[in-house]
Amino acid sequence: MLLVGxxxxxxxxxGCQKYEDGPWFSLLTKKQRVTGEWEVKTLMNxxxxxxxxNGGQTYxxxxxxxxxxxxxxxxxxxxxxxxxxxxxxxxxxxxSDKEEIxxxxxxxxxxxxxxxxxxxxxxxxELSEQTMQKIFPELTASKGGSRIEAEKK
Length: 153
Description:
- 16% of the residues lie in helices and 49% in strands.
- It is α+β, with helices and mostly antiparallel strands.
- The protein has a single domain (26-152), classed as Lipocalin (Beta Barrel).
- An eight-stranded antiparallel barrel has the order 1-4-5-6-7-8-9-10.
- The relative contact order is 0.19.
């Protein structure tokens, strides 16, 4: 009887995995996990990580999601002695199925991050070509979109 109960619980928890890359279970809500400051470590675009120094070009991206629904993205780009630093803000919320973070920018534009992994310390997802062009207009965004991996500060 105990074995049946354990199997039922295990099967129930296996359905808890919301995102492609996990986690399969968390005691924190999705909102608690996403809230905070994030440093983007990897931004894969056309097979190349754009974060850091790439051929004389330097890119950086930080994200902050507040509990009250506000967000800020801080972008930095440097090339041949010219530096650009820009911040974008607005309101965020999860899509109805909680598989995307919907970003309503203050300038009236709308973008999404499709979440593939969300833990308290890791956020991974897919950015559309349009989202990449919004955040990094200096880059030619790959047609299939780009992959982002961030760590909580």
